[in-house]
Amino acid sequence: MIALVLSMIVARRVQALTVALLSVLAVAAAVGAPVYLRAVDRAVVATEVDRATADELTVAFTSSDERTVELAAALLRLPGFTTIHAARIPVLGTQPGVSWLVAQQEVCAHLAMTAGRCLMGPSEVIVGSRTAQRLELRPGATIDVTPATYDPQSNSYVPEPGRTPATLSVVGVYRPVDPREPYWGRSPHFRPGPADPLNEPFFTAPPTLPLIPHGFEIRVISAVAEPGAITVDRLGPLRTSLTEVAGQLRVGLEDGSFGSDLDTLFGRIDRGRELARQVVPIAAVPMVVLCWFVLFLAVAYGTHARRHELGLVALRGARAPVRWWLTAGESALVILAGAPVGYLLGHACVRVAAALRLDSTDGTGLSLGPFWYAAIAVAGALLAGTLAQRQALASPVVELLRRVPGPGAAWRSVAFDVAAVVVTAVAIVQLRTPGGQLAGVSLLVPALVAATLAVVLSRLLRPLAGRFGRYALRRGRLGTALGALQLARHPGSQRLFVLLSVVLAGLGFAAGATDVAGRAIVDRALVSTGAPRVISLSTVDSGRLLHAVRRIDPDGRFAMAVAVLPGGGAEPAPRLAVDTARLAAVAEWRPDFGSVGPADLAARLHPPAPEPLLVEAATLAVDLAVLSATVDVDAPAEGPPRAYAVLRPVAGGPPVVGVLGDLVPGRRTYRADVACASGCRLTGLEIRYPSTAWHHLELQVHDISTVDISDADRWRGDSGALLASGGGVGLRFSASNLGRYLTSWLLVADSPSPVPVAATFELPRSFKIGGLDGVTRTSTQVGQPELLPGLGNRGIVMDLEYADRAAVGGTALAEPQVWLGRQAPADVLDRLAAEGLVVVGDLRVEDRQAALDRDAPAVALWFHLVAAGFGVMLALGGIALVAVVDRAHRLADLRALRAQGLSRRTVGTAARWGQLSVVAAAVPCGVVAALAAWAAVGDALPLVEDAALAAPEWPAALAMAGPWAAAAVGFAVVATAAGAVLARAAGRSEKEGRR
Amino acid sequence: MSGLAVACRRVVHIYRAEAGDVVALAGVDLTISPGEMLALVGPSGSGKSTLVALLAGLMRPSAGRVHVGTYDLGKLSDAEISRLRGTEIGVVLQGATRNLLPYASLHRNIWLAQRRAARTSGIALDDPDRILDLVGLPGLGRSRIGALPPGAQQRAALAVGIAAGPGLLLVDEPTSQLDLAGRDEVLHAIETVNAERGTTVVVVTHDAEVGARLGRAVTIRDGRVGAEGRGGQDFAVVAGDGTVQLPPDVLGDFPPGTLFTVDHADGAVTLVAGGSDGTLAGHVPD
Q1: Minimal CA–CA distance to A182: which of A68, A260, A100?
Q2: SS3 content of chain A, % helix, strand, coil (to 5)
Q3: Cα B247 from chain centroid (whole Å)
Q4: Does B98 contact chain A (CB < 8 Å)?
Q5: A943-954 burial, b if ≥16 CB within 10 A, otherwise e?
Q6: Of B277, B237, B230, B171, nearest to B30 (Cα)?
Q7: Residue A658 and residue A595: Cα distance in Å, rounded?
């Protein structure tokens, strides 16, 4: 029997190859989807790990108990993670307030020395560059440190009783190589935000701490992810290990705290993978079903041509198994033979696709993972083949042996159409009901809508074609009429119509989805970037930044200074301080940001305020009277409060602090060297108290040299200073530390108070916002846009110039930026460098787009385009297949018509229009089906990961029209070519007949 | 296997067509003895092929009975009829090439035709080479039908028809489009099969010579048995309903509606048109 089936295959090689090819394609499509998903999984994990913060790549256990930490060290073992030990003690003696002495494993490998060398032995310290500058420490200096302990009563650190200072040698000044690398993990060091002692600690070698007798020590065990620690294959074991470790540490060791944000990273990875799993099957399943459908067509046509042969087998009384073998065995063997080729081809195609789209072929290697998908594809192909031959298997022998076949049963019944409509409706309802998700049968909604519409409209095709044919006949247009009547009477026309319509619908849907996703990515890139180009700089003073940017762009046409202040802690959202005068010219503003335009918002954030008070002198003299000074009776005898004059260079830079001197009762002139000959802006007068013991002063400023103090409205106090009166006799104010502060201020009111801010959400009344110096100030919300450039739908923006004026402390920006508009000149980076600004990053919108284009939905959506292209190829093959199968009987028809006297031209027209009419009918159906599918499911498709910004509702018309036109032209060309071949064959047959 | 008897009793068959029902057979009575050879002759559309299709079990009669051997074909299920065709009824379709798979050798075709019988107990099958010898195609087992001349093609079709050793062989137009030599070869093969195996053979043919050669020719006219030729002599046949068809040449002189008196005396039946005085001869009543 096998030999007979094999001889059938050899005898009908072309048919066998066609079926084999379709089997290969079906299996390749079925295998391609899971393999592509596997590659996408790896890409998603790699992308998310690449974007992860140090917090997300580190877990840490902190405790002050040595035994607890030792136990934790034994438990904190995660595969692929390196354990880092660190310890820190609070010390006093290096600066006002506490400092931290930190010993961390392998720290020298992660620090760059700007002076001196790194640690080599005990009793050595290295100091951070900002701290060194502030405390004027250099290599070779020594510091005396006394272990401290926290005193809740005084709310401050005090020396541990009975401890003697330890002398340590400063051997180097450091800066972190990369403050964001996972090594620093969850440590409090080098974080953007207000400077505090932990932000830039004193590092020492681990042997040093035991040499300094101390009672209080904080130990930290960190597990840091090594490169390659978090991969798709390791996710499961890692999650399990993390859960176990966390449980053991949290439950067993209560004298410590366990911190991990790995679950946040896992959550993003899971989300990306889930989105990909929603998007890919939408294209993959229809691709496989299309292959099955075309295979059904191919086998059905082939079986029709073999009817007599099958009748012969039945005539000889062959039993059912033999009849089945000889009917279906040929296609079954070929389908099975194509399966392994398809399996390999699917892997190979995905490998190429991954290399092109994901820049990595990880996960595309040959494996048994997609075996069951391949098996389903093969089973479906076999079923399609069997269904195509069911009539031959069930027909009576006499029907099979008829020379002129009967009209035949409809290839599908009304019940099938009704079932298709019902299934489609159920899938749409499931998706659109509240809580409906793109899962299960809902994933097939686009394909179901397209297929159902095509199937239902195909019922209209033949009657309408018949009507048109008769109309054309009455009009004497014979060629067109014959083509239309061919369409009306040939059952294969309906099948081809359905195939072309579904393919065109799928193509339109994929093109539309890609267009919408592309525009959504552009929107997101623009919103998240904030401006066409964003230059990141190394740490720079805010005033310096403002001054430099205004110098390179005096007209404010293309450059805007921006300070990024992160959220977290007390800050509910990330903040931006921007030079609002340039907001409208530089930032990307979208209509969906809200009703307030950039110019209007800028005006609200930068209301009129008094001009700064400028000092251009080397010395500042303040005629100040201390009218009264009251101190808590229990305060230690530490000396009087001291006054300072704080200024800032006009060109920006760290504060200039001039010491005016200890405040003594009575009136006197206090003088401070300020070195402001080139111009400084007076920030105000600072009073520093020797301790937090309660102090109260009544003061009157009679005069400040070179500064006009006659307008009291140009002055205000902070919470510790109350301006009682002004004008005429100068400034009278009260100053108190209220029993807990160390400073009071009399400030120049050259910026608005409360601070005007705009936020994308409603801020609480009297909301206090952190400034550039980390000091919180009362704010007032002047706008609530939907979105803000650079911040998206969650952020707060304020004016940078006013924030700089309001700052009393250091204004070194950890994340300074310069936003450049579209008119930025080509040499803008050179101009920034000439101003002394160090560029550390250059992000364009296109870069952000490229990054978003690597997100899971975008890479998954690419599969749709591939599937759509695949469908077009299948459709072209389908047109050719129908042309080849129909050729014999159409040729006979046309020859007969020629013999009856029909002109060659008319025969040619009829030959061309036979299939061209199907293409012409399928194009509008495909268009309508695509639009209907989009209307049904377009807004539920996860086209971007971040759903905060609404994606465009409808694709651009041209985005869909272009591919449709190209496909329609392709179909028309093939159909016309097939018709031309047929017409030529009819002419040739006629000549042979005459001879 | 010896030949099967065939009996048709008042067999009627009606085709349903778009233009209306067509009565293909209008009451056929026919008896064929086991091992007999018979030619079915008649003009195109007379119902010969329909009768053969009914004998092959390819269709069911609209009325009447068809017996092949001990089987009443009208009462058998499709599966039973299929089994019969695979074991006891052999069919050779019109057009030799329509009886074989073109891409398979003669051996393979014969093997395929023997599949059903091979699975049926009690049937001894001849070797394919033996069958080919029987029809005069020795040593051509590996050939394909496309490589054979027309006469050999027809004999190859015969070989496939007798492959399962049937008791009844139905052959449709075996000598059409053959020259005299080819025709003789085919008829010789049929005679050999009948002689050696005792197979009952029914041949549908337009060729009167074939009928003469086979010894008995039944003429089907207008869906009924019109006449028979035996031993070179033509006979009118009384149908089951008592009707007799006049030969066509006689019918020309006496059109439908002509009245005859029937005289039956001394074993002879005499039909006198218009009665004994002939006054109504040729009279066509109003």
Answers
A1: A260
A2: 50, 20, 30
A3: 20
A4: yes
A5: bbbeeebebbee
A6: B237
A7: 47
Dihedral of alpha carbons A943, A944, A949, A955, sign: negative
Strands (E), chain B: 6-17, 20-32, 37-41, 63-68, 71-72, 89-92, 168-172, 200-204, 216-221, 224-230, 233-236, 260-265, 268-273
Nearest chain B residue to A394 by CA: give it. B78
Average per-residue pLDDT for chain A? 86
Counting residues of chain B whose pLDDT is more than 70, the rounded percentage is 95
Angle (CA) B131 B145 B180, round 5°: 80
DSSP letter at B147?
G
Residue A413: what pLDDT? 65
* 3-class SS of residue A145: strand
**A298: closest CA among A12, A10, A8?**
A12
pTM > 0.80: yes or no: no
Chain B residues lying within 8 Å of A4, measured CB to CB: 101, 104, 108, 112
What amino acid is encoded at A825 in this protein?
P
For residues A291 and A20, the answer to whether their CB atoms sit within 8 Å is no
Amino acid occupying residue A3:
A
Smallest Cβ–Cβ distance between B85 and the set A10, A309, A316 belongs to A316
Which residues 143-202 on chain B approach chain A with CB closer than 8 angstroms? 160, 164
Backbone region of residue A728 per phi and psi (left: phi > 0; alpha: psi in -120 to 50; beta: other values): left
Query: A843: which residues sit within 8 A by CB, 6+ positions away?
Result: A529, A533, A534, A535, A536
Which span out of A272-281, A521-530, A898-907, B83-92 was modeled with the highest average pLDDT?
A: B83-92
**C-alpha span between A121 and A255 (Å, rounded):** 32
Residue carrying the six token digits 């889930």? A274
B52 reaches A (C-beta below 8 A): no
Least CA distance to B99: which residue of chain A?
A: A312
